[in-house]
Amino acid sequence: MYPALIFGDAHWSPADIALLADRISHSLHAMGVQEGGTVAAMLKNSPSYVATIIACRRAGVYLVPINWHFKAGEVAFLLQDSAAQVLVVHEDLLDVIHAGIPAQVQQLVVPLHEAPGAPTAAWPGLEGAALADSQRIPFNAVVYTSGTTGKPKGVRRLPVAPELRAQADAEAVLVPKAVYGTTAESVAMLSAPMYHSATLSFVSHACAVGATLVLEPQFKAEQALQLIEQHRVTHAYLVPTMYQRLLALPAEVRARHDLGSLLQVSSTGSPCARDLKQRMIAWFGPIITEAYGSSEAGYTTFITSAEWLAKPGSAGKALGSARLSIVGDDGQELPRGEIGLIYVRQPAMPDFTYIGREDDRQKIGRDGLVTLGDMGFMDEDGYLFICDRKSDMVISGGVNIYPAEVEACIMTMPEVSDVAVFGIPDAEFGEAMAAAVQLKPGATLAPATLQARLREQIANYKIPQTITFHDSLPREDTGKIFKRLLRAPYWADADRRI
Known about the structure:
Shape: globular
Strand content: 15-25%
Strand order of the largest sheet: 2-1-10-9-11-12-13-14-15
Oligomer: single chain
Radius of gyration: 23 Å
Number of helices: 15
CATH topology of the largest domain: Rossmann fold
Number of strands: 27
Largest sheet: 9 strands, mixed
Mean pLDDT: 90
């Protein structure tokens, strides 16, 4: 099935999307891509991105979504590590990243503005064969995540045996159906960038069920309300940062829009402060849902508004046949109510490996479950509560940021002796980046200079906005920097720990 698509003033029929997906499929085949191959996409929200997802999914081609804010060095690593054969890229992004594209990676350059049914004569292979439909790979996104090493890890799903494909396909539909709620009759709205695993999943499910997708290039609070009213949107994907911006609108602006068509608002990207969620439920009604998951494990818990109001702060109960376990420092499962490391498994998702880093994959596994470093507990009714992140990851505006990557860049600066990067509370984005820097004796370095150097190496959203300088940084007995001591003063008055 193909979705109908509303993008700006343009209305794309399912036939229009099918044609565009077919063109991309022909082009990729002409460039040598086959089932099990790898294609990277550095695209802004657009019909071309939707069509690329469809083409790759049908053909069992691994799709590597790349954040279009990335710089050349960041893109170069992802393309090399994933062994991408082709980079599908919007034409206006090429100048920034061109130096980072390896010689062996072919480029399929997509026009930024494309009209329904318009010819794309410059694309290769339009008269040749298209990619054949896959029989083995039901889920094809390779999402890059990271950890303490600072180098991203590619999460790659393992192929499914042909005899298990039908069962895998059936199970793979059940989880997004619960999390997003979309059907063929739904009008689903997305304005968050599609390079995240959650938004990619949202779009992919809307495509699979043949929904109407209202896609926006970026989120604008009042415009989102206008679109909901104008197109009678039934399902939307929003994250806490968007909640903040919506609630910041004047009361008279919020009141002027009819939101009665909404049936479900899904949020999965980052933790939501209790007060913020309560205010959204009070405004939108009991239609706000939340799911806890990860690129590795998929969605493992789910909670409705009614459940959340009864269990404020909970991330929900096990979703479908998901398994949850809370494990103590001794490796033993803890009883209900005790805080430990959260281990999960979602059987609806095929197993995975980290590209070229099987040791890292093994380290996070236990009895068939995996942990991503989150700490929490389950109450007597089986509801999960997340208390802290054992890992250093920061979630800012729903985007995962890994301090080790930023620290590695800062440590290349000749003035710097040591550094710790960590998350601090932010009213709009949930968390913001902060850096505690120890300079070498006699060295000087202005915060603005440090930030300017970082902008040449990494995406702007990763750059710490708060920078402090210290004579020395606190360390544990093992020599590791005690980030908790650095973080604590910032979080002292916050209503949550993450």
